[in-house]
Amino acid sequence: MGLSLPLPEGPAAWSRLRWRNLPREARDTLFLLGVIAWTVLPHLGRLPLWCAALTGAVLLWRARLAVTQRALPGRWVLLAVLLLAAGLTAWSFRTLLGKEPGVTMAVVLMALKTLELRARRDAFVVFFLGFFLVLTHFLYSQSLAVAAAMLVSVWGLLTALVLAHMPVGQPSLRQAGALSARTAALGAPIMVLLFVLFPRIGPLWGVPQEGIGKTGLSSSMRMGSMAEVALDDSVALRLRFDGAPPPPEAMYFRGPVLSRFDGLEWRPLSPSFPNALQPKANLRVAGVPLRYEMTLEPLRLRVLPLLEATGDAPLAEGLRVAQREDLQWVAEQPVLERLRFTATAYPRFQHGPVQAVLGLQDHLELPPGYNPRTLAWAAALRRDPLYAQADARTLAGVVLQHIRRGQYTYTLSPGAYGRDAVDEFWFDRREGFCEHFAAAFVVVMRALDVPARIVTGFQGAEPVPVDGYYIVRQSSAHAWAEYWVKGTGWVRADPTAAVAPERISSGRNLQAPTGLVAGAIGTVDPALLARLRNGWEAVNNRWNQWVLNYARGQQRDLLKTLGFSTADWEDLALLLIGSLSALALAGAAWAAWDRWRAEPRQRQFDRARRALQRLGLAAEAHDTPRTLASRVRARFGADGEALAAALEAVEAQRYARAGPGGAGPDPTRALLAAARALQPLAGR
Fold first, then answer.
1. Residue 434 appears among annotated catalytic residues
2. 3 state SS for 350-401
3. Which residue out of 494, 525, 623, 639 is catalytically annotated?
4. pTM score, whole prediction
């Protein structure tokens, strides 16, 4: 266990206990504990509070035992803590099976195993648990930051593995770290080759990715819910256009369409009439199509927020979607991993039935007993002779004009609204976010006997593309309205544009309060924060495109670039096997050359050993120079003293601190000369 240190008494004594004064075994243990803490750290936000506290306490306990060279606890103590952790895990998750309970128990086992570091085999168990724990991070996130953090963990575990195979104190921690880094660098080409050429059966990671639990679009909407989404500045999607991008006011990304209103919440429509009587999509497009490529971050929904109006199904391997009558593109399953696809949109379009159908009645329903003042306002407007026979466009214009001139305020913090939220917004408080304006507009239009509904999604994008991609953030979440016009179909109306036109025309969102660090940077240099964020997002986007979204399509493109005409599985397998074989041959050739370069004196000694065999001495490859020196003295006596001394010189240099091949004259030359001098005596 190494030298024993007295327990320091008081803070002053602890301050005198420097790293270099610790026994080497204690330093190696502290290094391993630091690597374990670094590996566990990204999991802390997902672990139960008791698990984080227990893990930290155990690691600190083990560090104190290493510093003070105290004995490790007995097995009964570890068993009691393990049973307690298992019970707390079952209490926290109601099971011991599954991803979250499994990761929790793996973290606890890793911490407890450090209290059993009595032998090398215990250290190996810790190393393997550490490598397994590294993999568990990718069950939650495959971001560039997590990958970089886990790369540091792998380097630390490899360094600890090198130290465990060496005698205490040899090599130093710096040498072990350099050796592990070189080893990882030598394995990197094979890793890259396997990543590029190993057959892709599905996405790189078939597990939920980061972002699933964050705010985002929803299949329902209450007045105030979109404002919560707008506080999230994370990336929702990225897109790149083949040609000139559309203006910001045309960038509407259509998500869930909400038509059913119960007085408090808007939800998707459950049709009351048979399908034959429902409005059809009837998409009619004109003008030049707009092709774009989109990278969509994970959602909790099946609806893909595509650019209006995307007429053809988005093209992506394994993606199956269908377009509904309200122009929503719906996938078979919720989007739980990042998607990358191409699609075509038509900025000039019309859709929906041009003549009234019975199913449009579903878009006129209003819950009884809610918002009576708004309904009375609409009824009074209808009684006005000017609007008694007005069409839908005219009525929509009147409602939008009322919003424009009614001193309404567009704000992220309108406060909570009561039961009759539309009444309160329309007449009293007159402040709200996009969903307040959209919901009030739809209620008023329905009260005017005009079919209307709410559309949610995103509107606008960052004005300057980053690395060629326009970024749409969660803060660009938006709600607008559609109303039906006879002879035309559904028409978009965005009431937000009536009170905050800059929100639509320039895509400028309301800004949520920044944090302390971001606020300080923005105060010093307002553009610096934007540049830093854009630079990081450009790097992160390249990681997403080149690594996380690398799939079978990219593999086929690579094979075609390399000259394979068919680009099938057989070509991929042949290329992979051939590349691995070439790497193996190159590695074997390099190892042989390195051995030849690094062991010239060993080759000289092999020549000397053969010379000893010609003298009649038994000199096998496993015999040490000292053993051979004893045989020379026994065979030749004083005449062989020069040869025996040369053999002992070889022994001394071989095990010198500098190692074989270190500085100093080569004693094998004297060894060969002494062996030739004894040749006449060999036959005696």
1. yes
2. EECCCCCCHHHHHHCCCCCCCCHHHHHHHHHHHHCCCCCCCCHHHHHHHHHH
3. 494
4. 0.67
